[in-house]
Amino acid sequence: MNYYEPLVYIVPSEEEGFILKTVLQKRLMVSRKLLSRIKLTERGITVNGERQYINIKVKAGDRVEIRMEEEQSEDILPQDLPLHILHEDEHLLILAKDAGIIVHPTHGHYMNTIANGVVYHWQQAGITCRFRPVHRLDQETSGVLAIAKTPYVHQQISEQMIQHLVKKEYLAFVWGTVVSPSGTINEPIDRDPEQPHVRIVRCDGYHAVTHYEVVRQFDQGALVRIWLETGRTHQIRVHMRHLGHPLLGDKMYTLPQFESNADELEASGRLHRQALHAFKLAFVHPGTKEWTEFNAPLPADLSELQHWLADKR
Predict the structure, then answer these.
(1) Is the pLDDT of residue 106 over 80?
(2) What is the SS3 assignment for 102?
(3) pLDDT band at 192 (very low <50, low <70, confident <90, very high)
(4) How does the average pLDDT of the chain come out, rounded?
(5) Residues 16-31 as b or e (16 or more Cβ within 10 Å = b)
(6) CB-based contact 141:276 (threshold 8 Å)
(7) Among 33, 258, 295, which Cα is nearest to 168's?
(8) Where is the signal peptide (predicted)?
(9) Where do the domains of the chain lie, and which CATH numbers do they carry?
(10) Which of 160, 162, 252, 313 has its CA 20 to 30 A from that of 218?
């Protein structure tokens, strides 16, 4: 049985006599589900190199280690695809995702996804990991994508997301003149009963909060920085439409008053997707325990779009 590198905790003097389970859950922040899993493996939990039950008491100076079995994504076919790697270490792989590519294989779409490319990349590097994205990006959204290499790392970042500690920021190009330089959209979102694949603002929907700040105003549109408190499906697209400023290139959520502008943009051939880019992702790194920030530069199509808007009069 092969394991990933262990996570190590040296018991300080003030924690002498603590129950090992308490140390694992309160200091190493191991979830109940993950704890149940690793304690069944031979080398999952050790103290000073010896396998131990989680109900023992620890002593000052004890070396507590947890190990997770190596895993593979056996259901994902490796495929040589270009990956824009922003960062990689033993815990995480951070990519700048291109627009137009799906993150994970779906029914009827088994190839040409981020997952296929990552599995191939790891295979070539001799790395044994299961593909575990820690958050989602729509197919047509570009930007920072984080992939966990172990169940522990995935659990740690997921918990930060639940506690709203992960910082995700987006850049979006929207139609029209945004009057308020900054603001908050606090409007519930749910499915449109007439079009289930579309989301709308509705009073009985799910709580959703979006913050925005205008970075640059153009004659026909604006570049807006956006950050979220919640993560509803299509949240940015729905909330900006509700504000009266749908995203450029977003055919699903456009408004009638911008249709002629949208037609002109489409005829120019400059943009083939909604103008949304996840440019920043920040969280406490599960390995180093330090605040870590990753940034993806504006891709070529959105840079060209910015020039097009700047030239419009």
Answers:
(1) yes
(2) strand
(3) very high
(4) 93
(5) eebebbebbbeebebb
(6) yes
(7) 295
(8) none
(9) 3-69 (3.10.290.10), 71-163 (3.30.2350.10), 168-278+303-311 (3.30.2350.10)
(10) 252
